Amino acid sequence: xxxxxxxxxxxxxxxxxxxxxxxxxxxxxxxxxxxxxxxxxxxxxxxxxxxxxxxxxxxxxxxxxxxxxxxxxxxxxxxxxxxxxxxxxxxxxxxxxxxxxxxxxxxxxxxxxxxxxxxxxxxxxxxxxxxxxxxxxxxxxxxxxxxxxxxxxxxxxxxxxxxxxxxxxxxxxxxxxxxxxxxxxxxxxxxxxxxxxxxxxxxxxxxxxxxxxxxxxxxxxxxxxxxxxxxxxxxxxxxxxxxxxxxxxxxxxxxxxxxxxxxxxxxxxxxxxxxxxxxxxxxxxxxxxxxxxxxxxxxxxxxxxxxxxxxxxxxxxxxxxxxxxxxxxxxxxxxxxxxxxxxxxxxxxxxxxxxxxxxxxxxxxxxxxxxxxxxxxxxxxxxxxxxxxxxxxxxxxxxxxxxxxxxxxxxxxxxxxxxxxxxxxxxxxxxxxxxxxxxxxxxxxxxxxxxxxxxxxxxxxxxxxxxxxxxxxxxxxxxxxxxxxxxxxxxxxxxxxxxxxxxxxxxxxxxxxxxxxxxxxxxxxxxxxxxxxxxxxxxxxxxxxxxxxxxxxxxxxxxxxxxxxxxxxxxxxxxxxxxxxxxxxxxxxxxxxxxxxxxxxxxxxxxxxxxxxxxxxxxxxxxxxxxxxxxxxxxxxxxxxxxxxxxxxxxxxxxxxxxxxxxxxxxxxxxxxxxxxxxxxxxxxxxxxxxxxxxxxxxxxxxxxxxxxxxxxxxxxxxxxxxxxxxxxxxxxxxxxxxxxxxxxxxxxxxxxxxx
Length: 756
Description:
- This protein has 756 residues and is an alpha+beta fold.
- It contains 28 helices and 26 strands.
- The strands form five sheets. A seven-stranded mixed beta sheet has the order 14-26-25-24-15-22-23, sandwiched between helices.
- A hairpin with a 2-residue loop joins β18 and β19 (515-524).
- α9 packs parallel to α28 (725-744).
- Mean pLDDT is 83; it is low at 1-13.
């Protein structure tokens, strides 16, 4: 995870963020997006109806962008990501406002209903003229309209700018009912006319119900970012003139010394100067097992010191910490737009004008059919208030936001919404071998003493350890590490010689019963050792078998005696085979790509359960290999090395192991912070679940409007099915809520749960 820190500062492009006000539906976000995209210097722009925000990449100035938004009829302010108050993100300011509007609306609507429909329910009514009764209803309706004036303000702005939106539909429906009722009230001289003041007010109240539910549930889609922000430590204990001082965590400076006691949260990123401990990094990686740390190891902000006191030096503070960069990456991903969202955007752009035209045509047709104006108007108003562009606009971003949050909680970071969508369409998964499938560090796999001369394992290890300790070769380090882990005692050798291309040579002086003997010690390959000692045929056969398994046999001798073989290999990771099995269960083709020779590659692939191997590929050829594989399907490339970067970039989706190099992480679309291969199939499952959820949301949004608009227009009246404007408003108010709640169901999914 430590290598991830450098990269996280550069993974996001120069993305400038803005808060947008006045948007009410997908038509609004499409209008803002179009207006800003026309500003010179803007490369890409993405507007999120879910978070009422906008991300812009390019050289255009903030003033030009804000002006374009305002000219489109909306408001915009730039977000200061460096000096922002994170508490503002945690605070839900929209829901309380809507709830207050809702309560006031309901109170006055109930009073209005009493005067307009009380007599139908048998409630006592005050004695008054029809005109007085009508005026009371008019005043109460006006009060409700004033309480919900935002519908009319935003709707009128949309009409003026030629971009009608959902508020336009609501305000037109309510206004039509209101104006028609006013005309009837003052032009009818005999009896009480059929007024629609309660419909005008009820439409606004019901839509506000939906808006309140929607705002409340939308807030839950950002739970992942909120939970990450809550992890930020509040205070730190720093050393100033060898005295401990409590300061705010955001006040710690780079290179400042700080102390963390058991149970405390580490305030900033740093490096341990003194002490040993175990650190719970589950907040950042999702891995529940604490990681042992000692002097020289790196620690991250928001992780917890579980044991001893540690003294550290701050290396990254404030917005540069790993946690801050992860939060930024998750937020940036929510600012981007998935390709599938473009379908809904195109529909939303023409949706509202089409609905208005349908409402007008509906009203005219019913009048031409000989129906009363009030009846025809009711049908037209029903069309206006039942149609819901919001559901279309929210269908994709709510699912992307929730899916992205689930990934962050599990240490899977998607840089863009596009990467989250594309991953689920993967058909071929390509793994780099070294450092991805394998551990990337040679390890001792077999120890074979020469049984003919009754050589003991301990003697072979002692000789091997003692001579290899002098070498800097990676294979020698594997032998040394194994010996030290098993507390093997080291002998003293003299006259050490490194024989490049052959092996090692040294002299050993052994004293037995006061008699000193001198032996030549040799270590090396089979071809070299055959020039030193006689190699038995059965040893040669064992060496050949080890080579077939992708292992490198190292031979050791003492004088004229062959001591035996120690085999060294880059072993596969513990979860590699399980991961490959899971990917195959997901009906994916798995390929291993490596520069190793065919025999070694096949041996590693067999251990991992991979059937498809492409070996002997030079670093500069990997990209071209991926390009050829793309002709057979969508390709996911998983790697960790510098030589993987071109292939990661070329692939449809690039995935970097978190402990890999910075260059690989920079080139990838997805970063696995836990550096565990099990997260590869988990990420694919998450993407598929999210994509399925988006399809469900879009289906609901399209089918709702496809059925709802004809129903409101009266096409089902011959079958005895009709719809009043109030029921239309109720349906509209719940449609967006249903879409958001469906997206929140993703939180119930288990991405690591396997299914055959």
